[in-house]
Amino acid sequence: MKIGLVSPYVYPLPGGVTQHVRYLYENLRLRGHDVRIVTSSHGLQRSSEGDVIRLGKGFSMPANGSMGTVTVSPRFISQVREMLDREHFDLLHFHEPFVPFLSLVVLRESRSVNIGTFHAYGGWSPSYEFGSRALRGYAARLHGRIAVSAAARHFIDRYFPGDYKVIPNGVDADLYGRAVPVARWQDGTKNILFVGRFEPRKGVLDMLKGYRQLRKDGVEARLLMVGGGPQEREARRYVATRRMGGVEFLGRVSDDEKLQLFRTADVYCSPATGRESFGIVLLEAMAAGAPIVASDIHGYKGVVRRGREALLVPPHDPKELAAAIKRLLADRELAARFSESGLVRAQEFSWPSVTAKVDDYYGFVIRRLAATGQLPPDFHAEVPASPRQGGTAG
Predict the structure, then answer these.
(1) Interhelix angle for 280-287 vs 255-264, to 10°?
(2) What pLDDT does 20 receive?
(3) Residue 381 is inside which H or E element, if any?
(4) pLDDT tens digits, residue range 283-310?
(5) Are 51 and 35 spatial neighbours (Cβ–Cβ below 8 Å)?
(6) Which of 6, 251, 278, 289 is 20 to 30 A away from residue 14, measured at CA?
(7) With DSSP H G I counted as helix, E B as strand and the rest as coil, what are the percentages for the chain, rounded to 5?
């Protein structure tokens, strides 16, 4: 089939959704599909490059406790129509289909099979609460719906009830397994790793308060902080005013450096406060063999299992966070057991496995439309055989 992956977040800028789109693109191509990525530009990128098609300009704005993207263009409708007339996609796969305005315009103009994947999770959403009636017609144009976790499904179903297939995010498990630790941090001091945007929902200050408690308890360990964001200045000030040694602010790092840092970690820590739909960083930590301490939040429970790959602690509780880290650093047998279990668990989320489930779901939706004579006009591919007729099971 010819497939378009529509990302309202600017590809390939860093982010969970854009990373998801990248691996799905690569693995769908390996499965024989002709794939394009439809996204916006941010800065000086060309309008298109290879299999990446850019429409409009993306602008960052606060959303769900983090930063999102709104895409605008004075010629959106004509640009989208020209692109669809040229590409003739059999299937369009929208990632966060209701993020304005790229996804909404492409979905409205689409003459293809439309699949939506919902990545977000949060509490009450004013934009969905007050916009769900206006978006109802767009939701009706989706022929199939995927949620990356039970948490994400619960969140979106509150505003747009329907049938959602849960298919998780993936991880390149082999890539993480081949990484080597950073030599400079292999000096006998234990390493605690934090990777994430410096913002309240990632629990940055809780991480620092927990580490301070560890220092008070006499635990000799180093804290490696990877990332940046709106709370970076506050985090650095917290460390400086308390004259807290052992904290290394590493800033934003390359993908290769991140692989090495995960392999360097004696404990990976994710003290997120909520509104996490999944927890890709937990997959990355497991794939690298790092035992985990994480917040006991809804979005993480489908990734790590309590007492098997991770110790789970209440969010906003630095003392409990410190106690769990201290336990893993002291009990190396427990840490080794978590590491081994995490490596096995990560294989369940390998991208070939996840992509096979997505591809099977495409087939299910297409067969359902074909059976009722509702295939859209731009669909010209063969209808995939069902698994019972020789396809692959999901």
Answers:
(1) 60
(2) 93
(3) none
(4) 999 999 999 999 999 889 889 999 999 9
(5) yes
(6) 289
(7) 45, 20, 35
Domain count, the chain: 2
Whether residues 23 and 48 fall in one domain: yes
User: Looking at the structure, do residues 324 and 380 belong to the same domain, yes or no?
Assistant: no
Give yes or no for a contact between 391 and 363, defined as CB atoms under 8 angstroms apart: yes
Give the pLDDT mean for 357-365. 98
Do 308 and 203 sit in the same domain of this protein? yes
Q: Is residue 275 located within the same domain as residue 343?
A: yes
Q: Cβ(38)–Cβ(30) under 8 Å? A: no
Q: What residues make up the domain containing 255?
A: 173-347
Cβ-Cβ contacts under 8 Å for 305 (sequence gap 6 or more)? 345
pTM: 0.83
| Nearest to 110, CA basis, from 140, 130, 153, 148 | 140
- Quick one: 291 and 207 in the same domain? yes
Mean pLDDT of 347-370: 97
- Contact between 31 and 38 (Cβ < 8 Å): no
- How many Cα atoms sit within 13 Å of 239 on the Cβ side? 18
CA distance 150 to 330: 34
- Position 138 pLDDT exceeds 70: yes
Average pLDDT, the chain: 90
Tell whether 337 and 205 lie within a shared domain: yes
Q: Is the pLDDT of residue 160 over 50?
A: yes
User: Per the domain annotation, does 394 fall within a domain?
Assistant: no
Under a CB-based contact definition with an 8 Å cutoff, are residues 152 and 165 in contact? Answer: no
Number of other CB atoms surrounding residue 293 within 10 Å: 27
End-to-end CA distance of the chain: 18
For residue 12, whether the previous peptide bond is cis, meaning omega lies within 30 degrees of 0, is yes
Q: What is the CATH number of the domain that holds 199?
A: 3.40.50.2000
